[in-house]
Amino acid sequence: MAWLRLLLALRLSRFVALAGVALLLTSCSLIEVDSPLTTFDPAGPNADRIDGLFWMVFWIATVVFVLVMGALVVILVVFRDRDKDSTKEPKQLHGNAKLEVIWTVIPALILAAIAVPTTASVFDLTGCDPASMRVELTGHQWWFEYHYPDYDIDTANVLVIPVDQEVCLEMTSDDVIHNFWIPALMGKRYVVPGQITLLRMEADETGEFWGHCAEFCGLSHSLMRARAQVMDVGDFDAWIEAQQEPAALPVEGDPGYDGYQLFLNKGCVQCHTVRFDDPESSNIIAREAFNGPDLTHFASRNVFAGATLPGDGQSYAAALTGWLADPPNVKPGSFMPNLALTAQEIDSLIVWLEGNK
Amino acid sequence: MSDVSHDTAVDTHDEHESTGIDNRKLGMWLFLSSEFLLFGALISNYLLYSNRSGFEGVYPAEIYDIPFTSVSSFVLLMSSLTMVLAHNALSSGDQNGTRTWLFATAALGAVFLGGQVFEFTEFIVQFDMTLSTNPAASAFYLLTGFHGTHVAIGVIMLLSLWGISRKQGGLSEKHGLNLELVGLYWHFVDIIWIVIFTVVYLLSVQT
Amino acid sequence: MTATAERPASTIFKRPSTPSGLWGWITTVDHKKVGIMYGYAAFTFFLIGGVEALLLRVQLAQANSEFLTAGAYNALFTMHATTMIFLFIMPASAAFMNYLIPLMIGARDVAFPRLNALSFWIFFFGGIFLYSTFIFGTSLAPISPEGITGNIPLGGGPGSFNFLADSPDGGWFGYQPNAGPLYSPGTAMDYWAFGLQIIGLASLISSVNFIVTVFNMRAKGMRLLRMPVFIWMSTVVAFLLLFSLPIIAVALFMVGFDRQFGTLFFAPTGGGDPILWQHLFWLFGHPEVYILILPAMGIVSEVLPVFSRKPLFGYSAIVFAGAAIAFLGFGVWAHHMFASGITPVAQAAFGLATMTIAIPTGIKIFNWMGTMWGGRLRFTTPMLFAIGFLAMFVIGGLSGVTHAVVPSDWQQTDTYYIVAHFHYVLFGGSVFGLFAGLYYWFPKLTGKVMNPRLGKIHFWLMFIGFNLTFAPMHWLGLQGMVRRTWKYAPENGFEPWNIVITIGAFIIASGFLVFMYNWWHSRRKGVDSGLDPWDARTIEWSIPNPTPEYNYAKTPVITRLDEFWHMKYDQDEDGRAVRKPDADEMLTQLEYEGNNPESPIHLPAPSYFPFVMAIGLPLVFYGVIYHTTPWGKALILIGVVVMLSSLIGWSLEPLEEPLEDHNDGMIDPEGAVV
Fold first, then answer.
1. Which among C66, C68, C284, C523 could disulfide-bond with C59, CB atoms 3.0 to 4.6 Å apart, if both were Cys?
2. What 8-state DSSP symbol labels residue C156?
């Protein structure tokens, strides 16, 4: 039966080779370019600390993995039945109390070593500094709304925060449970209707970071994304100032006038707030009521429709055209209906919206 | 192949490693242990919601009629006594007595159920507390309704035993076991009610 | 030559007497036939759940893919998980328990044969009830509390297969309020909630049955610590079911009442608490994880010693570790909710509790390796699957430890990292274990051995496909790919690994096709197994294959653990096993005796009532879903009448016999009245 043994050995070595190739592939991918959603590229102290914790556990687990799998492979090779015809049977060992103690105590010690930093960081990373800037986040099917109580600003999809400063998100949901996640800045936290959850966030570099709703929240969960824009303090102050400005009320003859009329007549006013320099004409939807994103500074945000548009390689205007033409077809279940707008109406609306910087 | 027959008994004459408790009784105990957790969850659920403030509408604890519920609780408690008497009567071979006490137990259970129907009607009609008033009300109806369903099933089982006994002119030893099982179930339902009455009614009543 | 013993004519109901044909299967109360039916039903659902998984994988193989509509995707991942957990792994484990518990403890049947059949039929009709959602269910657009309705374009938006969307789409976890009446209107989620309720009842009944069987019906001499580990794990699982199912029953009733009768348990607008659902769900859901894995651990603990030709290393440690896992499993549920905003104290406590589970799990793994150490390893198909289980479970266990590191879990939870983790545990663990068991005990069913060559092809396809599918998911999750995602943006660069994963999924599927062919082929043309094809250790191999209808011609007497092995082997002064000179003779003798009982054997008689009663339950729940219509009310009534009348028939059935017959007041195998 030598050929059988050979076959077996071949198979075993094939398995080892395969495992090796898989490992190699994985390690290759490790040096690949990271996704914008990666957890491996923290941009703030909180995410940094979590990253450190992950790698600590990862390396411990890797050592355990290599030892256990190594032992398993050794066992499989050394103790395989070499001579099927032999009558020599193995020793009938029933156990070994000393070994039992060893492999109970060693994992317990390893776990204890992991438990200490875990517990410490849980307490360090939960809750907020009471002095930190507040942002009230509201989850909607399927977009995030941000309200800055200190500045009375409302915005959507893109969370703007200053660099090197702790920001405290006070989160609640208008409908179902969502889960707010900007991987580069912090782990995720549920956004629960009827309750307030806190998530602290701090960035130590400026830039744009991607996020996503992580809890399944209905039909278009996969299209509920987010961005965080981290600015240095000067830019942030300028942004605040700009956001506090109302939009210019279009008057007849203005390029945005036709679009504004459509906004008034097509039912958009039911959900969307717009603040104008003429407060009489402002359309304010209470935050407690059913609302859509505030459009006062719509064009100041580089993404819309739950931060899903514009997609890869798509121009802003083209994406907006596609969205306005049939929102539910882009985002199934969307509360914004298909208004059956003509191409011309869409163009007019875009002109007005793009003026709302 | 030799003789194989399909009978209702499996090889009862062989020796087994066994707890010594009859299969069906052990099964009933296990089932009741699961039921215990079911009611545990329902009671915790009620306590959780009834202790939250700020709900619209009335809370169950504001409208309890403790004297009335005390009486119906007493009725249910007495039914446990009659159940014991039924069991005793059967052990001493008194078939007539067994039937009487079985019927009395079922009747007391039915009176309790009647009381519950009355209580629910009062709550709904007089105090406008329905399933959808607030979560505390929802939890109250779910808990007491579940318990009531258990009592109703118990009454049906008691009446079936009573019917069988009448038809056959008595309960055999085999059905004696049935009586014991129904008894176990019945006592369990009573004990759960004592807990509900104490925790849900007496301890949370707002005067 | 099967003769039916004379029985007095029935006065009330005739008991069915045909032990063969379709009618024989419907009325059977034989634990082996019930087990086989459980197995076929479970693997049919495995096939369905697998096809669902493949459809999901085709959708995900491409960024921004429009193969499935969003509705169809959400429905398919909900049904995939629900199917695999409740309609495949649980009933497949039940199949093994049904078939093997009486055999391994030396009994003729379970304690309550009719209740056993009832469990199966309730499960079966529950599964059909759940799947009838594809025909009757509806899944509509969400409604805001203000009454504004979301919009779904005709055809469900971009993608195809939208006809699949009218089925439960709130996730197998059914998080509230998303799966509640406002955000999942339509009847599909009702089918889910009530379907699980029905299936849960089936498990509850069988858990009572199995515990009583194990406690009261072991062969003489089989003390608790002489029971095979599979029996131990089955018992532990039965207790887990007994104590966790009532919790989910209450939670599902709350959801059902919210959806059907306007209660406000989980409706935040009315003061309800959606997080309470999560606590209740995971208080059941985490023990459920061990319900899924422990039977497989039991199987592996039987297979490894046989093919290592050594006793299980640290038998009692493995048994107690299993019990410890189950016990601790009730105290870790909130690790599914680390992101939910529970207090840091709770997070730390549940994190630590979760870590402690790694200790008994480690004990098991090391003892299994200790079993193989110094053995004479024979790489048969069941052994390959058992080793595969071991290796994959180590990976799943290690990634599990990373979840216990709470802040790390804040990043990982709800991403594909979690999907990778639990597939390593449930597929690499449970499913590999179940396959090990199928190959190992196939001769007991058929008297044939499954083709080893095809078996090995199956194993390697499964093993390679499995790792191609699930290993890259770790990476994707850490790169930020969230779970339950219908679409992902191309900029994320998730596509290449998703293609690998989809290819892996199809390799798994091809492996399963090989398995199905092997099963079909070996049943007809497999090599005869004889009495003891594996040189096994436990007493179920001391009786002929296929198992005779009556199991044991003579009830065995047990003197030690691994009784059957010690009937064949002595030990020399080195502690090495030495085959007894008369072992082969003894096996021949055993086979003859097993096929030729000396005295007539009474077996439980078949019955119609489990089948009939099980039909009633889904009828009631159909009625509840449509209770506002007159025919819905009629269905409730019909269902109740069906159940009550079969209950009466059931309890009167034993009256066929004279009351004093076969009644020594100690063991009555018939089901209780309730």
1. C68
2. G
